[in-house]
Amino acid sequence: MERKNSGKKKKRIPVILAFTAVAAAVFWLRPSKEQEEIVPEYVFSYAENQAQDYPTTLGAIKFAEMVEERTEGRIRILVYAEGVKGAEGEVIRQMKFGGIDFARVSLSQLAEYIPEMNVLQMPYLYTDSEHMWRVLDGEIGVSFLSLADEYGLVGLSWYDAGARNFYTADRPVTCLEDIEGMRIRVQESEMMADMVEALGAKAVKLGYADVYSGIERGLVDGAENNWPSYESMKHHEVAKYFTVDEHTRVPEMQICSEKTWEKLSEEDRNIILECARESALYERELWKAQEDASKHTAILRGAEVIELSAEEKKRFQTAVQGVYEKYCGGQMDIIDRIIAEGGVK
Fold first, then answer.
1. Environment class of residue 345 by beta-carbon count within 10 Å: exposed (0-12), middle (13-18) or buried (19+)?
2. Which residues in the chain show pLDDT less than 50?
3. CB neighbour list of residue 264: distance below 8 Å, 6 or more residues apart
4. SS (HEC) of 194-261
5. Residue 108 pLDDT
6. Spatial separation of the C-alpha atoms in residues 135 and 119, rounded to whole Å
7. Counting beta carbons within 10 angstroms of the beta carbon of residue 92, is it exposed (0 to 12), middle (13 to 18) or buried (19 or more)?
């Protein structure tokens, strides 16, 4: 009897030990409160129409990362690149009603809804990039960020988009006469269309994604954009002549839907503004590096660069003076202030 009972006890010990080991393993594998994934209070969307590795997209990703870190995971922002949320005009319309929370949009697109914004993108307004940043980082830039609230948006910061130039397929633009009669693709912007028409060309509005095929199929003779867009979308394959006239420096604005903004505490608003401004400085550094790299790559792949002489550029400037009168007739005081900033060093 004693031997049998002893035998049963010996059989139970491994079972008990095994159960204890499993229980211990489960206990030690269970994440602590610190290890558990934080469930965000808010998950917001961010619309971006450029590629994943484009400076503005990387700036948006940096912004999202900083916001999540500084709110300790309470606010998460998901960046949707490559235009998956729609064209910029549609994104702006959706943001008015809270359909999209954040975005980076061209001032040209925003000016379609807030015409006063046109002042900042008048053709041949800035002497160089330093001139533009003195304006945008100063009192004038702050006042224009606040204008976004007229369309149910909150202006957060300014991103760089470089200078826009003309590029053409069959023949280069070396003087004002060369562009006359050409069909030039422009954004969905009345001001940009009027500028091209003032130079004697025909403005054709096409979506950004359709520019390559539009030139290839002969729907347009050329387009206008910055070096990174020209190179990243491979437009140099169908339009090898790149004329550096820097007709516009169109800044980009990082914006938030007012519907989204109203959900946030004052503390969170301040964090978002701080992160937006820091991400803008980061994006500008990326932009300069990308611009230099894109220009180098495009030239290696066959792009031919045409530099306008100072005299010829002046003729282009004179040709578009009617655009100033149409869009900024009542704001020439601001134009004068911006021009004056060009002489500040």
1. exposed
2. 1-35
3. 42, 272
4. HHHHHCCCEEEECCHHHHHHHHHCCCCCEEEECHHHHHHCCHHHCCCEEEEEEEEECCEEEEEEHHHH
5. 86
6. 12
7. buried
Tell me the two tokens of residue 200. Answer: 């004697």
pLDDT number for residue 267: 98
Determine how β-strand 75-80 pairs with β-strand 241-249: unpaired
Residue 165 carries which DSSP code?
E
How many Å apart are CA 195 and CA 327, to the nearest integer? 11
The 10s digit of each residue's pLDDT in 237-283 is: 999 999 999 999 989 999 999 999 999 999 999 999 999 999 999 99
The pLDDT assigned to 28 comes to: 35
Using CB atoms within 10 Å of the CB of residue 27, give its burial: 0 to 12 exposed, 13 to 18 middle, 19+ buried. Answer: exposed
Structure confidence at residue 38 (pLDDT):
80
Q: What are phi and psi of 73, to 5 degrees?
A: 85, 0
**Is the separation of the CB atoms in 239 and 301 below 8 Å?**
no
User: pLDDT tens digits, residue range 36-58?
Assistant: 568 999 999 999 998 899 899 99
pLDDT recorded at residue 345? 57
The reported pLDDT for the residue numbered 187 is 86
> What's the sign of the alpha-carbon dihedral 133, 292, 197, 86?
negative
Tokens 């001001």 belong to 191
Beta strands in the chain (DSSP E): 42-47, 75-80, 102-106, 153-159, 163-168, 183-186, 202-205, 222-225, 241-249, 252-257, 304-307
Residue 8 pLDDT = 41
What per-residue confidence (pLDDT) applies to 6? Answer: 42
Q: Are 204 and 185 in contact (CB under 8 A)?
A: yes
The answer to whether the CB of 153 falls within 8 A of the CB of 145 is no
Q: Which residues contact 27 (CB under 8 A, 6 or more apart)?
A: none
Q: What is the C-alpha separation between 341 and 131, in angstroms, rounded?
A: 7
The tokens for 257 are 């839907």
Please give the pLDDT value at position 23. 39
Token code pair at residue 231 = 């190179």
